[in-house]
Write a structure and sequence with these properties.
It is a single chain. The chain is an all-alpha fold. Helix content is about 60%, strand content about 0%. It contains 5 helices and no strands. α1 packs across α3. The chain is globular. The chain starts with a helix and ends in an 18-residue tail after the last helix.
Length: about 110
């Protein structure tokens, strides 16, 4: 499972950053990679145009994502750490076009 997560997450990175993304991901726990995957998966279902984001905007979207998570109380004391790891991965991988993340059950239909 670990190698599958590394491969899948590295594939999301900008092509010029994939090697670095793999190295970054290799140092993470499976739980940290699952958190990144959940954010990216939630981002996929968000409707609306994607646009480039600054680091501050990405941080705000990560915070909104965490608030929207139904199981945020079960995330444990390392939640802030996971949010920092996610932000670093997004920035270093040049994944700056992540729309505001929402869980499927909370998506609004237009």
């Amino acid at each position: 499972m670990r190698s599958t997560l590394v491969s899948a997450l590295a594939a999301c990175a900008d092509p010029s950053r994939r090697f670095g993304a793999r190295r970054f991901l290799a140092g993470l726990s499976t739980d940290e990679m699952r958190f990144i995957a959940e954010f990216l998966g939630a981002s996929v279902i968000e409707a609306g145009p994607q646009s480039g984001c600054s680091r501050a905007e990405l941080g705000a979207r990560i915070a909104e994502f965490q608030i929207s998570r139904a199981d945020s109380r079960r995330s444990g004391p390392d939640l802030e750490h996971k949010m920092i790891v996610l932000l670093e991965f997004l920035c270093h991988s040049h994944i700056r076009q992540a729309p505001m993340a929402m869980r499927a059950g909370q998506a609004q239909l237009s």
